[in-house]
Design goal:
Keywords: Membrane, Transmembrane, Transmembrane helix. The protein has about 40 residues and is mostly helical. Helices cover about 80% and strands about 0% of the residues. The longest helix has about 30 residues, at about 10-40. It starts with 7 loop residues before the first helix and ends with a helix.
């Protein structure tokens, strides 16, 4: 494969992947805190 600069599509995909990872971690943390709040 030839080395190329990242295309716009690849940049958008990369950003979208990071947003999904952060959103997943954030929802897990939020779920844990809210469940602790309910139980406590």
């Amino acid at each position: 494969m030839e080395k190329k600069k990242k295309s716009t599509f690849q940049k958008i995909t990369n950003v979208f992947v990071w947003i999904m990872i952060i959103a997943t971690i954030g929802s897990l943390v939020f779920g844990a805190i809210s469940s602790l709040g309910i139980m406590g």
